[in-house]
Write a structure and sequence with these properties.
The complex is a heterodimer. Chain A is mainly α. Chain A has two domains: 47 residues; 48 residues, no CATH class. Chain A is 70% helix and 0% strand. Chain A contains five helices and no strands. Chain A is flat and about 55 Å long. Chain B is α+β, with helices and mostly antiparallel strands. Chain B folds into two domains: 100 residues, Phosphorylase Kinase, domain 1; 216 residues, Aminoglycoside phosphotransferase (APH), C-terminal lobe (Aminoglycoside 3'-phosphotransferase, Chain: A, domain 2, Alpha-Beta Complex). In chain B, 44% of the residues lie in helices and 16% in strands. Chain B contains twelve helices and nine strands. In chain B, the strands form three sheets. A five-stranded antiparallel beta sheet of chain B has the order 1-2-3-5-4. In chain B, strands 6-9 form a two-stranded antiparallel sheet. The longest helix of chain B is centred in the C-terminal third of the chain and has 27 residues. The radius of gyration of chain B is 20 Å and the shape is globular. Chain B starts with a helix and ends with a helix. The chains are: A mainly alpha, B alpha+beta. The interface between A and B is medium-sized, with 35 and 29 residues.
Chain lengths: 108, 326
Amino acid sequence: MSWDGTESPNGAELLEIARATLLDVIVPGLAGDARFKALMVANAIAIATRELRLGTVAIRAALQAIGTDARTLGTEIRAGAHDDDADLAARLLRLAEERCRISAPRSL
Amino acid sequence: MDRAALADWLAAAAGQPVEIIGMALMSGGAIQQNWRLDAVVRGVTQAWVLRKDAPAKLSHSRSRAEEFALLQVAFAAGVTVPEPLYVCSDAAVLGTPFFVMRRVEGIAAAHRVVRGETLGGGREALVAALGRELAAIHAIRPGHENLDFMGEIDPNPCGRFVRDARKRLDSAQNPRPILEWGLRRLELTAPPPGDIVMCHNDFRTGNYMVTDRGLTGVLDWEFAAWGDRHEDFGWLCAPCWRFGGVGEAGGVGSRETLYGAYQQASGHAVDPAKVAWWEIAAAIRWAVIASDQAARHVSGTEPSLELALTGHIVPELELGVMRACA
C-alpha cells in the first residue's frame, strides 16, 4: 500500500494504546474519585475509538432508511400515522443497533 | 462552606450549642451535594449528613425543603430513611438551602451492591426488604396534611407519563423518533388506572444504603410524586438499572421474592403486565434525562465528562425500547 502522507500510528491506534496505558499503568494506582474519573476517561476513549474505526456511514444509512426527516417522523408517529407500520419498527430497531455499535456494543 | 455560620444556625435550630468537629464533601451527587458532618452537642458526638443543592440544580427535582418534608412523612410512616433533623430554606446561610439528617451506615454504590453476596443480609433478603420498603412508601396516600406541596393528583399516571415525556422531547435539541415510537406504543397499551399512592420515583439500586445486616436507608426523595405503585417497580426492575447484576429486581434478586414480600406487607398484588409497561417507561424516562444531561455539556453551559458520557447511554436505552416494543 502506498504512503498516504499521514504519520502512523493513526488516531484510533493512538487512542487504543493511550487507553491501555491508562487502564494498565495509571488506574491501578488510583482510588476513590480519581479512579472513578480515570475509568470514565477510559470509557470516553473507547467510544471515540469505535467512532473513528467504524465511521458514521452505517448510522447515516440507517437514518436515511427511515425515509423521512427524523423530526417529521416523530410527529407522525405521535399522531398515530404509523401505528401498524411493522416495517418502520424494523428500521428504527436497525437504527438503534447501528447507534449502539459506537455507543454501547455490549448491548448488541 | 462557612463553618461558623453553619454552627450558629445549627445551634439556633437545635436550641443548644453545636460544635462542628468534621466536615467533608461525600462522592456522587451531580444535582445535590452531600456533606459528611460530625458535630458535638452536649458532649455527644453526632454523625450527620448535610444535603444542599449543587450549583447546577435540576428544575425537575423538588426543593430541599420539600425533600425534607417528604423524609419526615416517610420516617413517621416507618420507611427506613435517615432521620431528618433540621431544614434551612434561607439561602443566605450557606449559599443554597440545605437540610441535615442523621447519617446511616452502609454503602450505596450500585456496582458493589449487585455483586455483594452478603450485603443487605443476602440477595433475596435484600430484595424482600426492598419490597417491604415500597409497601411502606405506597401506604402514604394523598390528603396527608404535610404534603400539600405535592400538588394536584393526576388520576391517570400512564397518560401523565406519556404527556410529560413528550413535552421534554419537544424542548430538546435532537429529534428522537425511536423514543416517539416507544411512547406511542405505551399510549396504545396503557393499562387502566389503579390506586394513587406515594411513589418514590427514583427507587433503584444505588439509591439505598445497605450493610451486611440489611437495608439501612432509602435515599434521594427529590422526585417523589403521587402515582401508580407499579411505577416504582418498573424503575427498580428495568434492565437499565441492574448494573450488570443477574437478578431482575434491581440487579440483586428475583422478582418473585420482591413481589411476594410487597404483597405480604401491603396486601396488594403486583401486576407483572403493569410492571412491564412501566419498565419501558423507565427506559424512555432515563433516555430523556440522559439526553438532557448531555445537552448541558454540549451547549457549553456545564462542561463535564460525566454529563458527556451520559449522552452515550441513550442508544442502548433506545435499543431496549425497540426490542420491548417490536
